[in-house]
Amino acid sequence: MRDLFVTFVVIATLPIILAKPHIGIYVWSWLGYMNPHRLTWGFAYDFPFAEVVAITTILAIILTKEQKRIPWMRETVVLLMFVAWMFFTTFFADIPDAAWEKWDRVWKVQLFIFLTMMFITDPQRLRVLVWVIVVSLGFYGVKGGIFTINTGGSYLVLGPERSFLQTRGEIGTALNMVLPLMRYLQLTTDNKWVRYGLAIAMFLTVFAVVGTHSRGAFLGLVAVLLFLFVKSRKKVVLLAAGLLTAYMAVVFMPAEWAERMHTIQTYEEDASAMGRIEAWEDAVRVANASPLVGGGLEITAGRRATHSIYFQVLAEHGYVGLGFFLLLGILTWHSATWVRKRTKNHAELKWAGDLAAMLQVSIVAYAVGGAFISQAYFDFIYHIVAMIVIMRVMVAKKLAETEIEATSQGNSPGKAPRARRTLNGLGRRANRTRG
Predict the structure, then answer these.
(1) 75-110, pLDDT tens digit by residue?
(2) DSSP label at residue 263
(3) Considering 73, 128, 326, 381, which has the largest number of Cβ atoms within 10 A of its Cβ?
(4) Cα–chain-centroid distance for residue 364?
């Protein structure tokens, strides 16, 4: 029955995608984050739904009369350079067959990140994308939270097999990343029942993260709660609710969970923690053997996994690749800060400031939790890059239009030339990216 349902939903969306390519971005994201086919037991489990949706979306892009523009911001350029560098290093991979197989998955993810920047062009489309991600990953947060409560925290919360969420550290980090987006939707919706539903989802998601028994995910959760307090509006209410939820989740868990978390302080006595440190040292040795290009994708196949996004990129793409990866994160954070500052006193753009702040918290979740998992190519972090780029373009354009309007009414003399230069710059950038 599940197989038929997933198949029916995907097939039903194909005609809509042909008419509206941005719907393909949503469906592809749903398949990538929720992996509904991995929750089936029949023919749908291995059916290439994502490929079908991707082909349909690309066909729709070819046929559509909608403008096709990629906003070439700093982040977009660095991301393209990083992708190109990954392609280049694959030619020198120590395990060529495994590397090219992994590259086949990596470039498809990146293609849809660029398509996201091309077709998610207004606030409403962006908000729908946020909802798709929240519902897709929130499903596992709610499901995992209920499972943790029902089992007394004695069993691990895991994601579907053969997905980005399959291990406890991976699903824990993904759930930490989606928590801030739940908070964003809660802040910006007018429907009180939706706000209540999101509050329950956040409560259960915290229990799900704790229920993974992952130390990296737990550290990520602590960081998320701290930065949610720093970045979010209505801090007092959020702090009280967050601390109460975290306290309830920790107290609820069995004694063996507490013992495992305690090893964070005594990592040198824990075999698993020491194994990670040895894996990081091994990654450095691989990179030092070939500092420019590293060992290529899947260098860890048949050997110890890196258990870190940073050491994974270092081992697979050398110090140059790690430089691109870190630079992308720094620039993205800076652009989110730019959006927050420019929208602080602009009521019409408050949504953008809230979303930028919450996306920064998601970056923190990935930066902390990612230090302990090998998920350098997880779609979510690159979708965050895309969303911040999209917002920066939207905000810059809106502020320039507002400034020109105020100037035309005689309220802000002397600012018209600067406003026109801003709009003209956006126009030239858009023209350069046409097609």
Answers:
(1) 999 999 999 999 999 999 999 999 999 999 999 999
(2) T
(3) 381
(4) 11
